[in-house]
Amino acid sequence: MTTNIVLTKDEVEALTGRHRKDAQIKALRFMGIEHRVRPDGTVAVLKAHIELVFGVSAGNPRKARRTEPNWAALDG
């Protein structure tokens, strides 16, 4: 069983909301997502990069961190 390391055509379309390759590239650049254009003109996006950008790794969603001010810093 082989696992594809890049998004499928449908996944790239879903991610960008675009069907045309030039529009997909523009959307990916706008979102700061690394991609490459293959010799046939299709767009390749690594699944690992998407997981990194969106904060998901190996099926474990990123848990929101709760931050609090440093109250001790307010004391003289």
UniProtKB/TrEMBL annotation:
All residue ranges annotated as the DUF4224 domain in the record: 7-50
Pfam families: DUF4224
Domain of life: Bacteria
InterPro entries: DUF4224
Name assigned to this protein: DUF4224 domain-containing protein
